[in-house]
Specification:
16 strands, alpha/beta, 297 residues, 8-stranded mixed beta sheet
Length: 297
């Protein structure tokens, strides 16, 4: 009898802990319900099948909780893999892929024909909730050539959010591949962080979330205890002037600053390979990544 009572108390303690987690999440769920959130998805969180299952399940849960979600994705590793199989060069300059017309065809085949369709299919296994797009659809993403030496690499020149907004109003989640269209009618490969920030601004989104494979920003990357949990817009803008900011993190910080300047309330960088990091960042008091906000700390 005593063993049974001890077991009952242990189970009750576990259930109580679960209830406490839900109660901590409640005010955050109320804040986000009905709000537009743009999630940039890529890196190891996309290419590892088990991690992808977990991330997409969390995204489905967010939608079921009433968030208006837009997913923006890249697919750099897949593009490189297919380029190599086709005998095309995989070359980068200052972190940007040199994109010849032939490589641009690979970008479109990979992002639009493979990655986008796979993500939409996996999300729609949970119901009719997602619609796949690319930036050329409805001229959603306009681009200008970044540098002729890079070929078909573009900077985002504008966003027409009409098609995205229509889909959100019909309760769909747009899933957007970052292929944009230029004034010349050609396709351009654009940075997914930059595209996500521009889309968030155009939609008047409440939050921008960049999923990556590091926990966020560190005061000292070698010391994992120095994770920076919160930065103001001014502090983030100052950080962009620091030559010590890593090449990989620089476009993410720039995207967050651009989003804040465009009146997005907050932006987050977090590690998508950590189980349920998306839920922990949004629905707990402390979070697990780095949040950028427009206020003064």
């Amino acid at each position: 009898m005593q063993l049974e009572q001890a077991g009952t108390r242990a189970r009750c303690a576990i259930e109580m802990k679960k209830a406490e987690v839900f109660m901590e999440a409640l005010p955050w769920i109320k804040e986000f319900a009905g709000r537009t959130v743009v999630i940039k998805y890529g890196g190891a969180a996309m290419t590892d099948a088990a991690i992808r299952d977990s991330v997409l399940s969390d995204i489905v849960m967010l939608k079921m909780l009433g968030l208006r979600l837009v997913m923006v994705h890249g697919g750099g590793k897949e593009i490189s893999n297919l380029s190599e199989r086709l005998g095309l060069p995989v070359e980068f300059q200052n972190g940007l892929r040199i994109t010849s017309p032939e490589v641009m065809d690979v970008v479109k085949m990979t992002l639009i024909g493979k990655v986008n369709q796979e993500l939409v299919a996996q999300l729609n296994a949970h119901g009719n909730i997602a619609v796949g797009l690319n930036g050329a659809d409805g001229h959603t993403l306009a681009a200008r050539c970044s540098d002729p030496a890079l070929g078909r690499v573009g900077a985002v020149a504008g966003v027409d959010a009409g098609l995205i907004g229509d889909l959100l109003e019909r309760d769909y989640m747009p899933v957007i591949a970052t292929v944009a269209v230029g004034d010349d009618g050609d396709s351009y490969n654009v940075n997914a962080d930059e595209a996500a920030a521009a889309i968030a601004v155009a939609l008047g989104a409440h939050r921008l979330i960049l999923l990556t494979d590091v926990d966020g920003l560190y005061g000292d990357f070698a010391d994992k205890s120095t994770l920076i949990s919160r930065l103001s817009q001014a502090e983030a803008a100052e950080l962009l002037q620091d030559p010590g900011l890593s090449r990989g993190m620089r476009p993410k910080v720039a995207a967050c600053v651009a989003a804040l300047r465009g009146s997005v309330a907050g932006a987050h960088i977090l590690n998508g390979t950590i189980p349920h990091s998306l839920l922990l960042e949004m629905f707990t008091d402390e979070g697990v990544g780095t949040m950028f906000d427009r206020g003064i700390l």
